[in-house]
Amino acid sequence: MENTINGIHHITAIAGDAKKNYDFYTRVLGLRMVKKTVNFDDPNTYHFYYGDKEGTPGTILTFFPWGSQIPAGRRGTRQVTEIGYSVPEGSLDFWLKRLDANHVTYNKVAEKFGEQYLTFLDPDGLKFELTVPKTVDNRTPFETSEVTAENATRGFHSITITSNTIEETAKILTDIFGYKLMEQHVNRFRFVTDAVENAAIVDLVEVPGERAGHVAGGSVHHVAFRVANDDILMEFRKKVVEAGHQITDKIDRNYFYSLYFREPGGVLFEIASDNPGFATDETVEELGTGLQLPPQYEPRRAQIESVLPKLV
C-alpha cells in the first residue's frame, strides 16, 4: 500500500449548545450523525461526528459542544478559517433558499479558481463554503427527506488556513505530505495532493500583520490528514520527527489512530488512520443512534448520561 497522505481525514471544531449543533448539521445540512460519544479528556462533554452513511474519511466533521456559556472564538491567523464542502452542479440555488428559510447568515455566490461557492456561518459563527468542483464529485451522498442526492453534500472539498507567512506551513504540505502548489490568486495559494480525487485541497492565505485568531466557540480546533492504516501512520511520524518537529506518540481514538503536532504556522495538525473505522461498536445501519463510551467510562455511564444535554 502506498505511503501517502490521502487528503483530509476529519476536521474538529468547537460548538456551543449541543442540541442546536445537532439540529443544524443533521436537519439543515442533512449530514448523518455517524458517532455520538464523549470527549475522552472530558466525558461530561459530547463528541459528535457527522459524515456520510458509512463515516468515510474525508466527510467527517466533529464537534465538542461545550455549552452556550462558552465565549465566541475569533477568526484570524494561525487557524483553519474556512471549511469547504463539495456540492453538485446546479445545487447552489437550493442551498440559497434553504439557508434563507432557516435564517442562516450567508453571502451571495462568488467564484475562485474557476469554481462557484456559497459562504455561510453555522449557529456558532463557524465559516463554511459550499463549492461546485471543476470535476464531478462521484462520492455517494447521505440523503435525508429534505436534502436529497441532487443537492446533498459529497464530503469535504477543501480547507483554508490563514497565516502571517505561509512558507513553513507550505513546506509541511509539500515536503512531508506530498502536496503540490497548483494555483495562486493574490495572497491565496492552493495546494493539492494527487493521492486522492476528493478532499484533496488546502488553501493557504497569507496575511502579514493580521492578529492571531482565538480558538473558542465557532472555531476549528484541529484538522486531520488521512493515511490508510496505523503502520503508515508511524512512517509519517518518523518523517515529521526527521524534519525537526515535535509530535505525539500514537493515540488510540477507538475509530482511528492519531498523531498530533503543531505546524509552524500555528495550526494543530493530526494524522489519522482509516482503520479500524466507525463500524466497530455499531453496525453501519446503527451508526450514531446510541451513546458510545470508551471502556474506561462505561462504569460511569449512568452519571455521564445524566449530565449530557438531551438532543430530542
UniProtKB/TrEMBL annotation:
<protein>
    <submittedName>
        <fullName>Ring-cleaving dioxygenase</fullName>
    </submittedName>
</protein>
<dbReference type="Pfam" id="PF00903">
    <property type="entry name" value="Glyoxalase"/>
</dbReference>
<dbReference type="InterPro" id="IPR037523">
    <property type="entry name" value="VOC_core"/>
</dbReference>
<dbReference type="InterPro" id="IPR029068">
    <property type="entry name" value="Glyas_Bleomycin-R_OHBP_Dase"/>
</dbReference>
<dbReference type="InterPro" id="IPR004360">
    <property type="entry name" value="Glyas_Fos-R_dOase_dom"/>
</dbReference>
<feature type="domain" description="VOC">
    <location>
        <begin position="155"/>
        <end position="274"/>
    </location>
</feature>
<dbReference type="InterPro" id="IPR052537">
    <property type="entry name" value="Extradiol_RC_dioxygenase"/>
</dbReference>
<keyword id="KW-0560">Oxidoreductase</keyword>
<feature type="domain" description="VOC">
    <location>
        <begin position="7"/>
        <end position="133"/>
    </location>
</feature>
<dbReference type="GO" id="GO:0051213">
    <property type="term" value="F:dioxygenase activity"/>
</dbReference>
<keyword id="KW-0223">Dioxygenase</keyword>
